[in-house]
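Good day; I would like, with your permission, to put a structural problem before you. What I wish to show you is a protein chain and, alongside it, a tokenised description of its three-dimensional fold. Please examine both parts with care and let me know of anything in them that strikes you as inconsistent. Thank you for your consideration; the sequence and its tokens are set out here:

***
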Amino acid sequence: MGLKKEPAVPVEQLLTSLRVLVEDNGDIVKSGIDINDAFLLGFLVGRKHNLQAAYETVQKYVDVRRRKYVQFFSQVSPTGFIYLYDEPRFMAVLKHREQKTGCIVSLLRPPRDLSAIRQPFETILGLATLAADQFFYIDDAIKNGVIIVISGEGFGFSHMKEVTPARLKTAVDICYQAYPMKVKQIHVVNCSTVFNTVLAIFKPFLPRKLRKRIVVHNTLETFHAIFEPNIIPSWLGGNRREEADWEVYDYTFDMASLDNADYYEKLAKKLAEGI
């Protein structure tokens, strides 16, 4: 990890200036979103202490919720996903960071059978936004960024039907454009033929920076050259048996959204009132 450049203007001063801009924006103030210092600081750090860029990203964060995708966000609540705790885990955050970069590592392993998941695309995207919200309160997530690992194992035609250009644009608009966290790398492993086909079709539609950060591993050996087997679960060829090892996933992170369920319920209700 390289040394982080200190901002020319003190962070406290930038934070005060950003809060003034935000509080002068009626659209943001009336949104129902919790505009606390940690939240605003996340935008400043994620946008390399560029005040204008941070403010514009806050506006995008609010806009996708209040206008662009209000129908979607008016239904996003942690309690709506509780039933998934009885299903095999398909999204998780590793307890340990990637050693070279210090990045948080987020895993996505779509289940072979999608029938148990209500509205699979909306569910996965909803869970992703709840996770991204928690990153505001994890210091190194903002500073170092996030690494995403996607498993294409078992990806078939039922999964393929869930991926459309419009849905891909929605995911990029929300998760890439409206959050300050940097996606440093995307590693794709265990690819099925269908997954490779979908990736080849839709990769050109992704932002250029994101495309350049996608690494497809044809074997787990190349993946293990980057990720220490002692921090990854057995389904990625690691030494951790996820069903019996409390050192593999960050279970505290899992519960953070549920701890804030009341906030999300109120926000969803407020957004629904504006439809």
